[in-house]
Each structure stands twice: as structure tokens, then as C-alpha cells.
Amino acid sequence: MGAKQTRSAQKYQDLTDKTGFSPEQIKNLHKRFQHLSDNEETISRENLEKIPALANNPIRKQIIDAFFDKRNQHQNEVGAFQEIGFEQFLMVMSHFRPPTLKTTEEEREAMRKEKLRFLFNMHDTDNDGTITLEEYRKVVEELLSKSGAIGLEAAKAIADAAMLEVASTNVPHMAPDDFYEGITFEHFEQILKGLEMESRMHIRFLDVDTMTMRCGKSKS
Amino acid sequence: MRRCGFVHLLGSVLLIGFVSSVSCEAALTGHESNHSEHEHGSSLSGIPIVTFKWHHVETPYLVALFILVSFLAKLVIEANHHVTNIIPESALLICFGFILGGIIWGADKVQTFTLTPTVFFFYLLPQVILDAGYSMPNKLFFSNMGAILVYAVIGTCWNAASLGLSLWGCHMGGAMGDLDIGLLQYLLFGSLIAAVDPVAVIAVFEQVHVNEVLFIMVFGESLLNDGVTVVLFNVFDAFVSLGGAKINAVEIIKGIISFFVVAFGGSLVGFVFGLLISLLTRCTKNIQIIEPGFVFVLGYLAYLTAEMLSLSAILSIVFCGMCCQKYINANMDENSVNTVRYAMKVFANGSETIIFVFLGISAIDKTLWVWNTGFILLTLLFVIVYRFIGVFFLTWILNKFRLVPLEVIDQVIMSYGGLRGAVAYGLAMMLDENKIKEKNLMVCTTLIVVYFTVIIQGITMKPLVTWLKVRRAAVSELTLIEKVQNKVFDHMLVAIEDISGQIGHNYMRDKWNYFEEKWMSKVLMKPSARKNRDRLFKVFHQLNLKDAMSYVAEGERRGSLEFIRNDHAYIDFKKKFDDDYYEEVMPDIMADMSEDHGEMSSGRRDPVPSVSLEMHEQNMKAVRDSEDVNTHHLLQQHLYRGRKQHRHRYSRSHFDVNKDEGEVQEVFQRTMRSRLESFKSAKMGVAPPKSLSKHPKKEQQQKVGGSQSSSADFIESFLFCLLDFEFSEGDSASGFNPSYNSMPMRVTYRAGAGIENLGFMPDLDSGPSVQLPPWLEDSSSVVPSQRAQVQLPWTPSSLRRLAPLRTSTRSTDSFMMADAPPNAQQIDLPPPPSPPASPPPPPPPHHHM
């Protein structure tokens, strides 16, 4: 029993080093993980799709895909997992860690890159290094599908316009016969410079146990 | 510039002098006339032709004059940019107040103009705060709500308590000499001077552009701490009247309870009034003229109601503005929204100006100045020191909980930005002289603190911000892709919170949005408004508008005559320039043309120029609500503006349009001429040999005009006559006309959008085909050049670039079709400059030069 505890403590320590979460946060997330996976070792798409609060999210599919995307594990692999373990789960979650006061400038920059890469991967579904118009359209369509006022055609047009905007920003002097293939990561970074990704793309991971708070959630 | 400023200054000084002398004279003459009346008794001296009744108008006259003078002062100050860059406007206005006060003092030997609490709290403050609430960035405010509340409540209490106690301690220690102030009175003084003032904060921070989180912190605090100040002030005021002996625990608890009642009650009143405004604007479709008035009247009523119930009036009006902003912007007509926005700014800015001038004037009053070095300097010191301590301590606690901690630099600016202002002065003036013996000293100290914070800290704020390298606000508008990305963000963060099982900020916001969408919007928003309200959609529209503009501009730059024949470009073109530049155009002709095109357009859908069709969509927005969208109506919407609206029958409730034939004709000619001028200059820029083009043109024109009775041809023939006339006249005018360059060309699409089409220019210079404009040949014989067929050079390159991206040819415009009511389709789609494959429209098809 004691040996098991030290082993899990050791494991948590590893994960802390890898992901930057505090042991308490990891413990909490682990609990959540077990809750989601019904105490299995791994989690599957179905597990995530069953989360009731997620049902209304227009980009649910993209988010869930991101969890099973090997690119988000920082191991230079591509493709998709069928199921992910806790470590992978944590790795994906670690993209949403907030910066702290102690974060240095370089770390901040690295964090920003990671976050951007995550976003980029979410759009770039075929992993060819560019977000093509079709890929972008798809996201925008799904994003706007929930707000009933905007139809599919409008969503398409908005995606087109946004794409055109990117094109005009990044390649201001395009030869007449050129056409813009898609957003590369560099361009993506360039466009989203103003959004202050590093200070916005994060959520609060509580240090305390959140299981007790879930009663409010299950109602919704 | 400086001289002009001087003249203004002189003028205002003279005005004041004049007024005071007039008032003296008036008093004298009034007296005399009374006298003479008495003398003559009943003898009628006939009806006086002119009487001078100064006293009759005195008060409103002086008020109006005072406002005028303050505005003129602002005008002078704003005219000197090099000064306002260093010294903030508020400080300059106070200084102007000093001068003005000096003049008045010199003339009257007594300060006739002082800022009384009634005037300030009832007539000057509400509009400033309403504006602040109305233009509050809600999302930012609520996501920092916790921190703002901590600063506003705890920070203010801390400031008040520490200041009062320290001053009392110093008093006990004998630092101030002989003063008749007790502990409670010190605390009362502390409470009135503790609060950061919204007016001063807005005035100073507006000019330094710090990052938005920092701004909302200071600004939000200054708004919300009013509740605290009011309670503290009232409680201590009551305590002072009660006297120290009678204060017991019950009274103190009552005071604490009253804080919650005052703060939450005030907010609730504001909220209710905000909902009321939103509901009302739902049904003001038929009284659009006075629609904006509701916002102001109800806002003011919210303020007064809260005041009446002795709740926090400032909180009330802030929340009123914050609640209604979204709904009224969606419900009201676009013009009304603009009216509200502008009127709000006029009131707020105006009264801000007056407040500062008043603050300056108030200083020049001998009765007010009671100097006590110890008291004043210690107050000043404590105000600043405790502000720093409070902010740093609270931030230290807050940073333990904040996801994005506030940096030290931000904290310094927050502390330094703790400006005191007119609210403190107003409260000080409200002190009861019978209860507080040293009222004048307190008022005097308050004024000095205000001057110090507004002038000294205001001036040093900008250098400090630069020196500390505080993150500045990003000035750029969000681009469409950024907006989309923001939306992705929101949803993504919620999703991650859901998956990780946290109930956080995003979760709450999502739930609130859901609730808001489902219930509040349904109740408070017009159904039609709900549809168009999406922000993304709005940006998309704006983008399209810009696109259309650059489209026309590009055509114009080419010097192509073509696009005036193309009636949608025609409209765009018109729109592009100031409306009083092209006052009106014949609506009938335009209507005819649009209808013609409507019939044709169903068959021809071209993705390339579709973006410019959005223009119509835009124009139609206002019309769409009424079920009978007809062409005439639409065109009238944007074609009739400018001068004509101002003459004609007077009507209070409608902007009537004069449909007189003769005038329309005349106006049309005038418009055509002016258009031609701009256009000629463009044409001259590429210098076509006019001798060649002249006569064939006429012939061709007649032919075409004869064969087709379309009104478009009428425009053309008319135009060409003019053109010829102009050419023969302006022979020497080669090169671009300077007026062309100075025209308001708003083609800022984004960097590098309006690119010259290289394929086009050489074509113009070399080919003889240009000299005889091809569209003048018989329409059937037009053969686009090889190059044109390949390249569609006439379309702006930015649009063309998209073409390969599109997989569907039914993109934007087909969406338009879906969006607009069915009968709008007719007018919606004038033919784009089409690729050669399209069927010929009534005016000869467009040749791509």
C-alpha cells in the first residue's frame, strides 16, 4: 500500500515536470479523468462526447479531436489516438495553463507558441502545415451553426472574407496569377499577434478538490 | 494657431467683462426705470419699442454664456496640440478656471460663480456617468469585477479610515496647531476625500491609452466606489450629528447594512431602468425622431430615483447604461443609435469641461481659503501614501487568486491614477458649517488635493507611463479573423473547463450568455434586430463595405469611364463621397435601371464582384423592416440626402423629401457636372488623346441612345456631352487634378489591398483601342481583349485573388439572397462587371479595359 502511494507520488512528480501542473492540480485532474473514463485506464471519444455540458458547444468535435491528436503531445508524431491515457490527457490540458508571475519572458514566448500551435492544429485537420480555405470554412461553419441567425452561406462567406483578409495581410504584393493556398503557421502567428494569446488562452485549474462542486454541473 | 488661440481667449475675456458690466448697468437701469415709473405714476408713456430686460433673462443667460465660454476655452485648448500633449486638458481647463475666476473676482469683488453641490450632482454629473456606463466594455468589466469590487470597497474604506485616523493622530501629536476637529470629523473628511473620482480618471486616462485591464481597474473602481463613499459620508455625517457618545454597536451595524442596501439598491434601480429603456425602444419604431430621448430621460430618472430613495445614484446610472447598451443598440434605428452616441458624448464632454472650469473658478474665493500648512500637507501626503499602500496590499492578495496577475508597473500606475476630483469637492461643499467648524479648511484642502492630483499627477502620468513602459492599449480594430478566433476561444475555453470539470469564469459566462440569448434578448430585443446583431456578422459587413469602396476606387484610379455606367458602382461611388458633395441624383432613373437589372440578374451570378453588392444590403438594412421594400424607397434612402433635406416643408416628425421634378433635374445636372470633374481628372491622368475620342463618341452615343430608350443611356449621353464640353474647356489640365487627390478616398482595406493592376496600365498607354472607348461601339461587336478575358483586369486585385479560393460560385451573393426578403432580390443585384460569358444588360456590356 505504502509502496503504491510512493509510486503514484513519483508519477505525479514526473507529470508535474512534464506538464507544469502542481501535484494538487494533477490529483484533481486525475479524479476528473477517472470520473470521465468510468475508472478505466484510458479515455475514448465516447467518454468525452457524453459530457452533458459539452452538448451545446458548437466546436465540440474540434475540441475532442484535439485531445486525440498526436500532434498535441509534443512528440513529433502525427495521426490520432483511439484512446488516450491520463498523461496524454494532461498534456492537452497543459496548453491551458495560465502564466504566473514567475514565468520568464522566454517561457512566456514558448507558452505562446505552444498555445498557438494547439489552435493551429485544431484548424489544420490534415496536418499539411497550412489551413486551407476548406478547413477554415469548416470550423467557421460549425462555430456559427449554433447562432441561428447566420446561415450556412453566410458562414461560408465570413470564412472567405477572413481568409481574404489573411491573404491581403500576409502577401501584400501578390502577383496577379497567384492565389493564396492557406494559412501557414507563421502567418497564423502573425495574424493573432494582437490577441495576447498567452494571457487569454487559459482556464483556472483549481488546487482544491472540485468533485464536491460538480453537483451544480450535473443539473445543467 | 497660437494667435488664433489668443484671439479666442481675448474674446472670451471680453465677453465676461461685457457681461459683468452689463449686469451692473442693467441693475442701474432697472433701478432707474423703477424710479421713473414711480415718478410718473399712472401716466402712460406709450408702448416702448425696445426694452432692455436683463433681469428677465439673467440666470439662463449667464448659464448659457458660461457654457459658451467653457466650450470656447476647450476649443482654444484643443487647438494647441503641442500643449495638450504635455499637459492634460483637464489641468488646462482648471487653469483656465483660475483665470476666469480671477476676472470675475476682479469685476464683482465676490465669487458669484461657484460650483454648488446641487448643480454638480443634479446637472453636471449624471451625463458623465451615463456616458461612462453606456460605453462601458461590459465583458472586460465583468471579467474583472471581483478585483474592481475589492479595490472599490475595501480600498476606499481603507483610504478613508487610514487617512482619518492618521490625521487625527497627527492632530493629537500637535502637528496642526489649534483646530476644532474631532476624530469623527476626521473620519468624515477621510471618507469624502477617499474616493477616486470618475470624471478626473476618465479625463486623464483617456489621453494616456494604457492597456485595457489597467484602465478598467481604475475606471471601474472610480465608478463603483461611489456607493462606498456615499455610505461612509452619510454614516459619518450622522455620527457627527449624533455625537460620539451615542454611537453604539447597533448604529455601526446599521451603517454596514446600509452600505449593502445603498450599493445593491442603487444597482438594482439602474438595472430596472435599463430594462425599461430596452423594452421601450422595442416599440419606438414609429417615433424614431424622439427615440434617443428615452435613453437620456430614463437614464436621468434612474439617477434621480436612486437619489430619491437615498441609494447610490452613480451606481444606478452606471448600471442603467450598462444594461441597456446592447439592447438599445440593436433595437433602435441606426440613425438613432448614432444620435444617442453623439448626444451622449456632447453632454458628457460638455459637462466634464464645465466641471473642470468650475473647479478652477471655485478656487478664487477669499472666504474659502483657510490655510493650515500641517493639515493640508499631511492630507496630501497621506492621500498619496495610503493609496499606494492600499493598492499594493490589495493587489498582493488579489494576485494570489488572479489567473493573470497584475504586474508591479500596473500597480504603480493604478496607485498613481488615484485622482480625486469634483465628487470630493461636491461632498465637501455639502458639509454643514454648523456641525463642522472647520468646513472651509476642509473644502480648501479638498481643492488642493484635487488640484494636485489632477494637475500634477495628470501631467506626470504620461511621462510615467512611457518611462515605466506600461503596456499600452492596442489601437487597431479587430480584424475579422481575430473576431472569429475570439469566438473559437470562448467556446474552446468553456469546453476545456467542461472536460476538466471546473466551474470557472468561462463556464459562468457561457451559462449567462445562454440565459441572455434565450430569455433577455427575446424579451428586450426586436425580433428583427436579434437577427443582425451578431458581432461577427457586423464586422463582415464592414469588411464588405470597405471592399466595395476599394473596388470603386480602383476603378476610378484606372480612369475607367465604365463604372459610372454600371449602376451599382454608381451608387457606391456616390456613397463614397460626402453626401453634400453629390447632393441628389434622379431617383426615377436609378429606379428604372435597377429594375432592369433585376430582371437580368437572376441569370448571371458572378462571384468576383459580389462583394460590392453588399452595399445594397447595407443600404437596405434600414428599409428591410418595413415589409414593402421597393426600389424607389431604397434609392431614396441613400440618394436623397444633403441639402434637400434642409429646405422644404418643415416637419417635426419626418424628414420629408422633396420630389419636385424640376429640382431633381437641376440637381441631377449639377451632380453630373461635379462628378464629371472628378472623373475627368482621373481620365486626364492617363491622358487619352481627346481629339480622337471626341467625335466618334458622339456619334456612337447617339446611336446607342437611339436604339435603346433605357434611362441609363440618357445618363450617358448627358454625361458625354458634358464630358466633351469639359475637355474642350480644360485643355491644359493634364495630370491629376489636386482635388482628385484630396477627395475622401477611404480605401483602407488592409495593408496592400489596393494594388495597381500591372496588366492594366500598359494596356491603356499602348493600345489604340482605348482611344475609341470600346463600349461605345455597337454592343454586339464588343470583343474583350485577350488580356481582359484572361485577367479580368477591371476587378480589384484583392477581389480577384479570392476567386481561385472559391469553390462555389454561389457564395456571398447567394447568401444575400437568402438573407434579404424575396422582393428585395430585384434591386439587390445590379449586374457586376461581368466576365465575357454573361448576357448583355440593357446598357452595353462592360468591356474590361
From TrEMBL, chain A:
Cite the entry's keywords alphabetically. Calcium, Cell membrane, Cell projection, Cytoplasm, Differentiation, Lipoprotein, Membrane, Metal-binding, Myristate, Nucleus, Protein kinase inhibitor
Output the PROSITE patterns linked to this UniProt entry.
EF_HAND_1 (PS00018), EF_HAND_2 (PS50222)
Recorded GO MF terms = calcium ion binding; protein kinase inhibitor activity
Spell out the InterPro entries in the cross-references.
Answer: CHP3, EF-hand-dom_pair, EF_Hand_1_Ca_BS, EF_hand_dom
**Domain EF-hand intervals:** 111-146
Record GO cellular component, one term = cytoplasm
State the membrane topology: Lipid-anchor
Instruction: Supply the Pfam families for this chain.
Output: EF-hand_1 (PF00036)
User: What top-level branch of life does the organism fall under?
Assistant: Eukaryota
Q: Where in the cell is it found?
A: Cell projection, Lamellipodium; Cell projection, Ruffle membrane; Cytoplasm; Membrane
Q: What is its main location?
A: other
Gene Ontology biological process terms, A to Z: cell differentiation
Q: Which family, according to UniProt?
A: Belongs to the calcineurin regulatory subunit family. CHP subfamily.
Task: Please identify the protein, giving its name as recorded.
Answer: Calcineurin B homologous protein 3
Q: Which organism is it from?
A: Amphiprion percula (Orange clownfish)
TrEMBL record, chain B:
Keywords in alphabetical order, please: Antiport, Cell membrane, Endosome, Ion transport, Membrane, Phosphoprotein, Signal, Sodium, Sodium transport, Transmembrane, Transmembrane helix, Transport
Provide the membrane topology annotation: Multi-pass membrane protein
Tell me which Gene Ontology terms the entry assigns under biological process.
regulation of intracellular pH; sodium ion import across plasma membrane
Which GO CC annotations does the UniProt entry carry?
A: brush border membrane; early endosome membrane; recycling endosome membrane
Q: Where is the Cation/H+ exchanger transmembrane domain?
A: 68-467
The residue range of the signal peptide is 1-21
Q: Respond yes or no to whether keyword Manganese is given for this record.
A: no
* Gene3D superfamilies tied to this protein: 6.10.140.1330
| A single MF term (Gene Ontology) | potassium:proton antiporter activity
Record's superkingdom? Eukaryota
**What are the boundaries of the region Disordered?**
679-709, 801-849
Compositional bias of kind Pro residues: 829-849
The subcellular location is: Apical cell membrane; Early endosome membrane; Recycling endosome membrane
* InterPro entries tied to this protein: Cation/H_exchanger_CPA1, Cation/H_exchanger_TM, Na/H_exchanger_3/5, NaH_exchanger
**Annotated catalysed reactions:** Na(+)(in) + H(+)(out) = Na(+)(out) + H(+)(in)
Q: Does the keyword Signal apply?
A: yes
In the record, the note on similarity to other proteins reads:
Belongs to the monovalent cation:proton antiporter 1 (CPA1) transporter (TC 2.A.36) family.
Q: What does this protein do?
A: Plasma membrane Na(+)/H(+) antiporter. Exchanges intracellular H(+) ions for extracellular Na(+) in 1:1 stoichiometry, playing a key role in salt and fluid absorption and pH homeostasis. Major apical Na(+)/H(+) exchanger in kidney and intestine playing an important role in renal and intestine Na(+) absorption and blood pressure regulation.
What is the name of this protein? Sodium/hydrogen exchanger
